[in-house]
């Protein structure tokens, strides 16, 4: 069962909404989505249950992706590692993350904004080329930093904040973001899902608080493992936890039919 919302329909505008708009038995259309379609003269038609979908459609209909809920965290450049923990310091792995080669560190920092601070924010390793802080929108309200929704690494024009440990301080002039939801894939995964780096997926949760994510960016790299990443605000809104699975119901603004 899919829940079709006005937001998911608007995401399809750039590629066009099919007319008639096909739905399967059990699919739910929100009142706002129904008004959106009606106002544009688009008919809603239920798919004939006796009509057999193509092989590609059948494969697309059952695809699922594992989910990871990502709490606030910090990525540090090696220069800032040494400012915060001492010359020559190397980050200490505590546990591996879902992405190969990535790990949560034993080290933590306090993040400080104009309105407040949050203690014990985990650092993720290994060290990167530039320092970046990823928080939720709720965290931003708490510390007084209004971070934009960005893909990791896209930090130009973003706000900064202060990082503090017992050994040092780093004053960031940029680098605080709310991470845009995204899917990590290996090239083999991308081939299976028939997408490429930079494409978008439409994903539906299968929880008791169903939500559709209409614009999830696909990131492809040989070192990536299949995983859909959301922050704690998104996870809480849909009553999700790490290890849950979401259903792929479309790509690049188009719902799969059949």
Supply the number of structural domains. Answer: 3
Mean pLDDT: 89
What is the number of E strands?
A: 20
Quaternary state of this entry equals single chain
Largest sheet: 9 strands, mixed
What is the CA-atom radius of gyration, in angstroms? 21 Å
- The first-to-last residue Cα distance is 12 Å
Low-confidence stretches: 49-55, 57-62
Tally the helices: what do you get?
7
Shape: elongated
Structural class label: alpha/beta
**Range of strand content:** 35-45%
What is the string of helix and strand elements?
Answer: EHEEHEHEEHEEEEHEEEEEHEEEHEE
Protein name: Phosphate propanoyltransferase
Cofactor: Zn(2+)
Family: Belongs to the PduL family.
InterPro entries: PTAC
Polypeptide structure, described:
The chain is an alpha/beta fold and 258 residues long. The chain has three domains: 3-47, no CATH class; 71-179, no CATH class; 181-255, Beta Barrel (Barwin-like endoglucanases), CATH 2.40.40. The protein is built from seven helices and 20 strands. The radius of gyration is 21 Å and the shape is elongated. Strands 6, 7, 8, 9, 10, 11, 12, 13 and 14 form a nine-stranded mixed sheet that branches. A six-stranded mixed beta barrel has the order 5-18-15-17-16-19. The model is unreliable at 49-55 and 57-62 (pLDDT under 50). The longest helix is centred in the N-terminal third of the chain and has 9 residues, at 31-39.
């Amino acid at each position: 069962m899919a829940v079709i919302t006005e937001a998911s329909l608007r995401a399809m505008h750039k590629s066009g909404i099919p007319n008639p708009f096909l739905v399967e038995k059990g699919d739910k259309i929100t009142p706002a989505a129904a008004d959106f379609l009606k106002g544009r003269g688009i008919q809603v038609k239920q798919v004939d249950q006796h009509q057999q979908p193509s092989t590609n459609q059948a494969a697309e209909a059952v695809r699922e992706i594992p989910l990871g809920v990502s709490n606030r965290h910090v990525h540090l450049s090696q220069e800032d590692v040494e400012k915060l923990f001492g010359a020559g310091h190397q980050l200490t792995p505590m546990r591996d993350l879902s992405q190969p080669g990535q790990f949560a560190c034993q080290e933590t920092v306090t993040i400080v904004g104009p309105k407040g601070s949050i203690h014990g924010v985990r650092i993720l390793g290994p060290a990167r080329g530039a320092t970046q802080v990823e928080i939720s929108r709720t965290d931003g309200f708490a510390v007084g930093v209004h971070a934009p929704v960005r893909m990791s690494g896209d930090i130009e024009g973003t706000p900064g904040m202060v990082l503090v440990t017992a050994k040092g301080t780093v004053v960031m002039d940029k680098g605080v973001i709310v991470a845009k939801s995204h899917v990590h894939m290996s090239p083999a995964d991308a081939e299976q899902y028939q997408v490429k780096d930079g494409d978008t997926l439409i994903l539906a949760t299968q929880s008791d608080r169903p939500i559709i994510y209409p614009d999830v960016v696909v990131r492809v790299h040989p070192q990536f493992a299949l995983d859909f990443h959301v922050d704690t605000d998104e996870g809480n809104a849909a009553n999700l936890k790490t290890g849950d699975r979401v259903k792929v119901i479309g790509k690049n603004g188009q719902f799969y039919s059949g």
